[in-house]
């Protein structure tokens, strides 16, 4: 069995740093009302080794610390940690193995995004901010049972069809988001809930006016390559 002691000081130093980051980001899920009780999880992949850091299963958010974060390899095997890892670990690992540019994964059960997932509907792209962040609608993925890498496979299959989107709504389950690191994936989770809520409200008022794909592409290019500090 491989343990953290089998890795060099560079890897162990990154594990320490990533544990701190992942622990702190779980509090952002609470701040933005994306989770309740023990639901949801954040993980981040290391850059110095094929390892990831993820939330322990069933532990309340107020009890999470950097030391309680679990280190796993990219097959989902525990490398370091006193607690059992999240029940979504195998799916996070599958995403990392099959999406090489992804270094952060987040899963929530946020209310409005999960409502769209329960109805099996994409969130239509009726806002410029959706063009910016998602490059189109937020897609719905297939129904998959929890506890294996099946959900991860569904996430990867769906995002291959929507390569600009950092989010997928797994049918009857909830949103998964990805990013260049865990913070980017948490941001995508917060944005997913924001647009899910706004598009739900828009539906109550009337038909959503969807934005043409040519304009979405221009919005997305500007946001990804011009907006902000570079």
Automatic annotation (TrEMBL):
Q: Cite a single Pfam family from the UniProt record.
A: Aldolase_II
Recite the UniProt keywords alphabetically.
Metal-binding, Zinc
Please list the cofactors this protein needs. Zn(2+)
The record's Gene Ontology biological-process terms are: pentose catabolic process
* Entry's Gene Ontology cellular component terms: cytosol
Q: Name one GO molecular function term.
A: aldehyde-lyase activity
Q: Does the keyword Metal-binding apply?
A: yes
Q: Which InterPro entries did the record assign? A: Aldolase_class_II_sugar_metab, Aldolase_II/adducin_N, Aldolase_II/adducin_N_sf
Stretches assigned to the Class II aldolase/adducin N-terminal domain: 20-200
Q: Which Gene3D superfamilies match?
A: Class II aldolase/adducin N-terminal domain (3.40.225.10)
Q: Which reaction does it catalyse?
A: L-ribulose 5-phosphate = D-xylulose 5-phosphate
Task: Report the EC number(s), separated by commas if there are several.
Answer: 5.1.3.4
Record family assignment? Belongs to the aldolase class II family. AraD/FucA subfamily.
Provide the protein name: L-ribulose-5-phosphate 4-epimerase
Lineage of producing organism: Bacteria, Bacillati, Actinomycetota, Actinomycetes, Bifidobacteriales
